[in-house]
Every structure is written in C-alpha cells, then in structure tokens.
Amino acid sequence: MNKKKLFARVLAGSGNVRFGDLVTLAEAFGFRMIRVTGSHHIFTHPRLPELLNLQNWKGKAKPYQIRQLLRLVEDYDLPLEEES
Known about the structure:
Helix content is 38%, strand content 23%. The protein is α+β, with helices and mostly antiparallel strands.
C-alpha cells in the first residue's frame, strides 16, 4: 500500500491496522528496528531520545502503540519519506 494512503488511513482513526503495515509506516518515518525480544519489536530514531516498542498481536498492531507512533511523529515533526 502507498505510504501516504496508509498514513491517511491510520490518521483517520482506523484501529484495524496490520502489524506489518505499522512497521512499514514506522520505517517510512525514519525508525529502524534495533532488536526483537519475544513479541516486542524495538525501534530507534536518530533524532529521538525515545524508543518505539511495537507488538504483533494476532497479526494486528495494538491501538495504543499506533497512537504512540502518531504522537512521536507529531511531537518531533517527523517527515514521511518519499516513495521511490
């Protein structure tokens, strides 16, 4: 799915987001996975002091973790990378 369309769908409040789509979106904002511990996928961003923790819950992303990603994007004004 196009990253801009995916971001628009998540912003619209869709709580039904596949885990893989949320990982794609996080990476599009510059996050990189540094480790996986059990079900916890830990991401870091070069401009942020905070870590992002995402969990795969039955193939879906947890709603509070979707909100956490959106909060980080807004608080730090992170740009969405362009499609190539």
